[in-house]
Amino acid sequence: QVQLVESGGGLVQAGGSLRLSCAASGSAIGFETMAWYRQAPGKQRELVAAITSGGITNYSDSVKGRFTISRDNAKNTVNLQMNSLKREDTAVYYCNAELSVFRRYVYWGQGTQVTVSS
Asked: What is the pLDDT of residues 31-45, one digit of tens each?
């Protein structure tokens, strides 16, 4: 059974940095895409950043230039380095991993809280 375990959330002042990590286990096949999503109170879950197994990245406009996503395919880990944090970055951040074997499989972590104070 695939499990995604996030770590690294917390409270930080505006302008500060945090690094989120996610470790995936239980899959005999590498994930095509690993990503970070976030959900703020009263808002829909949104994509923050994604990275393919080949290293192609995609960022939401709101975090471009401030966040960096990276992954280690051998270890099945994905990280999100968040710099120049803003109050509007406050949300629960979820790790996501996807693969396709005859059909698409989507996996989610339990979420980690990131709170940015002024």
From this structure: 999 999 999 999 999
